[in-house]
């Protein structure tokens, strides 16, 4: 056996035949055959005798220890090959890796090997942005949108839109808008600057206006009591029904009683939201089924006020057939074709927004003072994130701990209008299991 600094050369009985095994490459499996150390190599032909030079080599091989065959046997028993390491990848910065960045990165974050590539990019971008690493965030998102330009990949595009907006980069925002419209065939998000919320304009509320809070059900005593009090003070009543999302027969009967009292007192009434409520009542009735009579009669009243004469007559016939009773008669003078716009409902919505726990700016190591006391008094508990630009892991984790008791107590918790970068980070820390995250419409 001849030794070489970079190769092991095993010689056969004939000098012209030799095999070279690279020290750095894995030898072919069929050549990796263990051979006894003391056994001399066999000539290819039984008739041909080895010459003196060959005998000398054989004798020398027999007299020496046999490290090479022993090395081959060990490799055959436990083959091991190191993975190729690519030190020329473009992903490594020219100046090397700055390990100081790792000190700010959160621990215990592992991306599973079988993780969806879109989810992996979303999570990594959210983490980078939370750590204040804007340049890597932008590079990752700009590369990712070209790889994922359909379906679930839209989340990456929306993150990049918000990144451009939050960092005040209008020109790339416009370019991205054109690419988005081409890829997803729909309108892109619009550019908007962060502005201070404008104070709500004062609304003139007509006298006798009552907002019917809750559903039109027989057990909603508070809402019907408010109607009775307003009727005692005002000959003209304006009832806003825009908050009603459900109705039952007893609730319809109680509303008919209120309308009958107004008619008896020769008062006037305006019903705001009657059109939407009429659709709810239509879904509850069926010709030939003798129940929900209150819904039938209240729907006939709505058709009367809306001026739907044909619908009124058809339903009156069906009512007579179903209940074997005469239906109400059509009165043309009672038609109020145009439904007035709601007023108190708008004020109520503004008040609900004011009741939210508002946050703004970059939330770094935030402890949210006052949130716990606020949460004890609110149901649902709403956190307004529309003015939040960034949140770090410490703050997000604190938020999970503070909101979890409210969730366990049965309250609904809502994170209102976070930007997409913040929303994705909240998903990473597990806040989606505690709160409903409501994104703004773009």
Tell me what you see in this structure.
43% of the residues lie in helices and 11% in strands. With 442 residues, it is an alpha/beta fold. It has four domains: 2-77, no CATH class; 117-184; 209-334, Transcription Regulator spoIIAA; 350-438, Transcription Regulator spoIIAA (2-Layer Sandwich). It has a four-stranded parallel beta sheet. The two termini are 76 Å apart.
How would you concisely characterize the structure shown here?
With 442 residues, this protein is α/β, with parallel strands linked by helices. The protein is built from 15 helices and ten strands. The strands form three sheets. Strands 7-8-9-10 form a four-stranded parallel beta sheet. It has a three-stranded antiparallel beta sheet with strand order 1-2-3, with no helix packed on it. Strands 4-5-6 form a three-stranded parallel beta sheet, covered by helices on one side.
Shape: elongated
CATH topology of the largest domain: Transcription Regulator spoIIAA
The secondary-structure element order is: EEEHHHHHHEHEHEHHHHEHEHEHE
Beta-sheet strand percentage?
Answer: 5-15%
Q: Please estimate the helix content.
A: 40-55%
- What is the CATH first-level class name of the largest domain? Alpha Beta
